[in-house]
Amino acid sequence: MARSRADARIPDRPSPVRLWLRRNRALLRPAGYGVAALAALGVLGFGLYALAPAERLAAATDGIAAAGARLGLTVREIAVEGRRYTAMDLVRTAVGANRGDPLLDFSPATARERLELLDWVESATVERHLNGTIVVRLVERTPFAIWQHQGRFAILDAQGKVVTAEGIGNYGPLPLVVGAGADRAAVPLIAQLRTRPEIMVRTQAMVRISERRWNLRLHNGTDVLLPEGQEAAALSRLAELQAGQALLDRPLAAIDMRLPDKLVLRQQGQPPAQDANPAPRGRSSRG
After folding, report:
1. Domain named POTRA: which ranges (predicted)?
2. pLDDT digits (tens, 9 = 90+) for 113-124
């Protein structure tokens, strides 16, 4: 059917976004451009989500992101704060955005979840700003000790959790703990040793014995046998002996402190004494 003259004279109605932009030209100056564009997209997006069926929501969202990109809402910069140990390429991959990507396509919540899966990241916050900047703030774990077990080494954090087994020498001098269960039990012992610097500075390693108690291996080769569950009292006594007798500087094979009322000094070449606190049946009693 041919169109009438009246129909031919009726111009096509502009799209809702175009009408909104015409009515708000004053907002589209450099200072308010991003706000105006986002507001326009918000109006359009609300209509799409209210009217479109569920199966078309994803397509509508893609359309909004693309429209935002045409209006200048793209990723311009990714700023990362608090990063020290996490490799930058791992951060970029977890963020999942590049310069020029549609800003509205980027999900801060998804990026945060991926960042918190990285070994060194304890927590993360991610912000998306209208000027195109994505701000990532990381709280990283702190290297606390090196754990040696079954011939392998790993870095522990301040909660005794394994962070990484790579680049062990890259994190500066750290206390060395050795043996099964040493990772879980090391934190309180190291904290106590740090209050006794005269002992800490002479300690080469802390060795977990039968997952029950500790030996201190000194740099001069002496083993200090600590009592189970009474480490603080034994360290206090050991500090007094060092101050009064320089006990830790003597050429001894062992200083046995497992009995509260007895101190046994074993000279080099003497056989080790039997553990004063034998392990339950079926468990090793080496100590």
Report:
1. 73-141
2. 999 999 999 999
